[in-house]
Amino acid sequence: MERILVAVSGTEASIVAAQYAICLAKMLQSELIAVYVVDIGTLQDLLTARIFVQSESLEYERDLEEDGRRYLNYVSKLGSEKGVAIRTEMARGQVHTEVLNAARTNEVNLIVLGEITPMLSRLETQLGQSERILYDAPCPVLVVKDEETVVEMYESL
Questions:
Q1: Pairing of strands 141-144, 31-39
Q2: CA–CA dist 57, 55 (Å, integer)
Q3: Averaged pLDDT for residues 15-20
Q4: What is the DSSP letter of 115?
Q5: Going from the N-terminus, what domains does the chain have, and what CATH number goes with each?
Q6: CA–CA distances in Å: residue 133 to residues 6, 80, 81, 97, 141
Q7: For residue 63, what pLDDT band results from cuts at 50, 70 and 90?
Q8: Greater model confidence, 106 or 55
Q9: Residue 6 parent element (H or E)
Q10: Contact 110, 140 (CB under 8 A)
Q11: DSSP symbol at 79
């Protein structure tokens, strides 16, 4: 397994997935790539539904980019604490599309995702980004669960 990609969204589940990916990369001596996607698709939906006006959308997009840099820096720090270099990438677009593009472009052997939470509405079910990654991935996908065990594993590394 030469290259592993972890999708970082800033959720607790994605941070746990990053910790697991760091452990895997260290054990397998794999290259680790962390990808954060500024979700332009959702921003466009909010504009279309008139929930946001253009100026609010631009401000929110800048906030998402800043958050993305912060999350990627944090994941890089987690990796460096364990002796694992992490290449970070920020993309803009629909999350599932950009994660899959990064997986193909980087020819990764594994995609690591955080735990997929139950959807609360029919709309969320139709738009589940993680599920779309699962269905369309060009390689195996690992969904990380059991935060407590992962944190213990990461800390003992």
A1: unpaired
A2: 5
A3: 98
A4: P
A5: 3-156 (3.40.50.620)
A6: 12, 27, 29, 8, 8
A7: confident
A8: 106
A9: strand 3-8
A10: yes
A11: H
